[in-house]
Target: Class II aldolase
Amino acid sequence: MSIDQQHAEKRLRIQLAECYHLIDYYGWTEMIFNHISVRLPGEPRRYLVNAFGLNYDEVTPDNLLVVDADGQLLSNAEDKPNPAGFALHGSIHGARDDIHCIIHTHTNAVCAVAMKKDGFSYDNFYGAQLFGRVGYHDFEGITLYDDERPRMLDSLGQKHVLVLRNHGIAVGESDIARTFFLLWVVQRAAEIQCQTGMIPGADIVLPDTIRQRCSEDAQSVMTHSSAAQKMFDAAVRKLRKERGPLWKGDEGCV
Model:
């Protein structure tokens, strides 16, 4: 591995550990379950992921594991990855070169929307940004089995959000910051949809032309600006102000 690759991996490990701590900070964790994975620089079939059994706020750059697309441990570590993780993560990473990071969550709001036959509403500000970007995969049980992989990929297609019906959500983007930004949009869309459902009266339904324009504008901001990285960095700064160093030797906390 070159010096440049070593530096890139170190930075990626720090960002991924920060992301795990952010998910914990915002209350989007599921005990020791769920997972965030990111592709290593210049390594199309090698990924970083959390060790199974750690709370998200216990993840550090050094205890992240290196696995292949099948979830097989490649790093020299006693810990193991979650076996349920890479039936989902590995299939997407292996098929989508444009997706370098994947986050899977089971928040209350997301799980509630995943239970609904119609899935996400595209009539609130955040939901409209997801118009045409969401795939749906029917529930087949815990995602442990290789034979489900092609069906999950068919359900995702070329989209970046996969609703696992009766289960949860997976989002994927080109880097950690963009994936976190997309997850935040999905989470906010689900929360507002759940709140809207509690209020009597008819909803205002947006025309598809407005939904489509909103979705395209959101994707353009995601792709062509630094908004996602700025948001991620701001969230990490706030996290460190409130919690202090995130791990021993945390260089980001001054």
Summary: Residues 53 and 222 are 33 Å apart (CA to CA).
